[in-house]
């Protein structure tokens, strides 16, 4: 695991370099101590104690003892009240958004691989003692990658809520829009502030840094900014979780990408995930929610969660405004243009099978001939009967 130790990984070099590395680390310790970055100092000492265990057990024990005696950190809320939130020097606008107790509009539906990784991030932190007992640290930094509207920001909020910590969000796209020369110091201000309190920090829209690349005049500034970011990620203490989110992982500097200890890939919802998401949104509003969820998930295949959420709530709003049946408006969501031939057939069969519409209407909507629908239905029934017989 990469850590706050600037020279981690250099222990195996020849003696003169080793001496140099030790003095480097001492200078680093002096720098973070003089800057009052107590979180970093603690993280540094934790690592020293861990590494010294085999070569200098007495030193390791003394440092661990000191860490145990160290006063516990003040609560995030008290600390926030004492230290004002960082602001941009020019505009005096606050640099980040603070959600003390993150709230979600609804429970997220995560793809199984995503869910597993997110739960692991949370479990590691809630059970960090078990990890530290065997000289391991919880994951410090995670990169959330995926197209727009798949729940990256929502997942960061979910993680913070599960950990019972405030979520601090720095929107890099917003910060970068101000004077670029100021971005590095703003970034440092936010990260230094966030290190000092128990929180989850989200660096949202991380690719904003990469996107500015096109501008030749700014290349020098951007290089400096990337260096600041890399240094900040390396110095991030294991007591807090740093999450960064991006739509364009391919634009990120490989040096930044490499620094994240975990990468969570958020895919567009597949049919099954979309179906459970739509079902959750409709369950309390129509008695045939399950049928609609199936049909809508086929018709809106390949769309993001935010598209699905927007379309379903549009149908609900329309039905409420006009005092009409929700089913009528849900059927307006069933478009087949853009679907593959197989998906159009699946949709037609599903619509007829679930009694949502007649084969004639399904043909009008999907262009799938009634004969094809009938044949597919028959084939599906034969498959089902065969499965039952085997079962
Ligand atoms: N997995 C999910 N489960 C439930 N709702 C979701 C999920 N993902 C997204 N949504 C809905 O879509 C909205 C937008 O999601 P979010 O902002 O988290 O997406 P994002 O991946 O961060 O997108 P962007 O890259 O544009 O910032 C959420 O507020 C929520 O309503
Ligand atoms: Mg987002």
Describe the 3D structure.
This protein has 391 residues and is an alpha/beta fold. The protein folds into three domains: 15-69, no CATH class; 76-265, Rossmann fold, CATH 3.40.50; 271-390, no CATH class. The chain has helices at 15-34, 38-55, 57-69, 76-82, 112-126, 128-133, 152-163, 172-176, 180-195, 207-211, 219-234, 254-257, 271-282, 289-299, 305-322, 326-331, 341-353, 359-366, 370-390, and strands spanning 97-99, 141-145, 167-171, 200-204, 241-246, 262-265. The protein has a six-stranded mixed beta sheet, with helices on both faces. Helix 9 runs parallel beside helix 11. The two termini are 48 Å apart. Residues 1-20 have low confidence and may be disordered. The structure holds adenosine-5'-triphosphate (ATP) and magnesium ion. The site of magnesium ion has 4 residues, from helix 7.
Q: What's a concise summary of this model?
A:
With 391 residues, this protein is of the alpha/beta class. Helices cover 58% and strands 7% of the residues.
